[in-house]
Structure formats: structure tokens, C-alpha cells
Amino acid sequence: MKKKAVILIITGIVFIGFGLILNNKGKNQTVNNTRSAKDIINQDKFNELINDKFVYKYFIVRTLNTDNKQFGNLKIEYDIKGESGEFYIHTEWIKENDNEFIITNLKNNSQNNSSPLFIVVGIAGKPEKPDLLYIIPESEIKADKIHFDKIEKFKKKNIVSNFYFDTKTKTLK
Question: Which H or E run includes 62?
Fold first, then answer.
């Protein structure tokens, strides 16, 4: 009888120990997921800001799969004075203003699609109100790492104004 009791106690201790190990792994994953959830929320806020910069009379903004960076994460369809078409935007909000930033996994759009792709980068401030905003044509990006001194000409001077798309030159301002 005592032998069975000892075996049951040892078995119980083993199961409790195993349960604690599994429980701690889950807690660590939750902490990591919370950080990425905050990044996702910030990116969503920035995407909403970009979405709101298009006049709905002329533009339809569609959200694409954010994992597919081949064509950006926003598809913009336009109908301006009888001219219609589409272009894509890849958005990045960067919390801090460093000398450079990295656009990860951005594939060359021009080989796969004739529609223009723009990289819209918000820097510092808050996602819904960045301190700086850049609109960079994908054709100007030569590497995954971009230095700010190379893109100064793409800085949006009036951050609060709406976007304007020139249908003849296919440029976004």
C-alpha cells in the first residue's frame, strides 16, 4: 500500500512539474506576441492615416495581405477626370529617426506588374501623426537599406494635406 502511495506521489510531482514547464512556455510566448501585437496596431494606425489621405470621390483604397510585399499592402484604384487605373503603396512607420531604414522583403514590382508602387514612410511622432512623411517611388529604391540623405527630395512638405496622384506622370504627391 505504501509503495503505491509513493508511486502516486512521485507521478503527481512529475505531472505538476511538467505542467509548470508548459505553463511558463506559454507565458513567454504571450509576452513576445504582445510586443508584435503593438507593432501591428501601430502599423494599422499608420495605414489608416494613409487611407484617409485619399479623397474618396477619386480613390478606392483596398487593404492587401500585409505579408505580401510584392505589390505593397494597399491597392489604390483611381478614377480621375475619366482616367482610371491602379497603383500600390507599401507603408512603413518607423518609431525613431535614424540615419537609415530597412525595407524588408520588398520584391521588384516593376518585373511583375505595370502599376506603380510607392513606399510611404512615416518617421517618429505617432503612427497617426508622424513627424516626417516620405513618398518614394519604387523605381528609386536600389537596395533594401535606404539612407535619408538619398530620399530628401521625396519628403512630403505638408503632412496634413491629402495625397495627389498625377495620372500623366504616374507620381504620387
Answer: strand 59-63
Higher pLDDT, 21 or 169: 169
For residue 36, being part of any structural domain is answered with no
**Which residue type occupies 60?**
I
Could you tell me if residue 61 is inside a domain? Answer: yes
Do 156 and 135 contact (CB within 8 A), yes or no? yes
* Host domain of residue 62: 46-172
What DSSP state is assigned to residue 109?
G
| pLDDT tens per residue across span 50-90 | 999 999 899 999 887 655 555 668 899 999 998 999 999 98
| CATH number of the domain within which 121 lies | 3.40.1350.10
Query: Residue 111: pLDDT above 90?
Result: no
The cell numbers describing 90, all together, are 507599401
Identify the CA nearest to 78 among candidates 168, 141, 156, 15. 168
Annotate 39-51 with b (16+ C-beta within 10 A) or e (fewer).
eeebbbebbebbb
In a domain, 124, yes or no: yes
Residues 89 and 103: beta-carbon distance below 8 Å: no
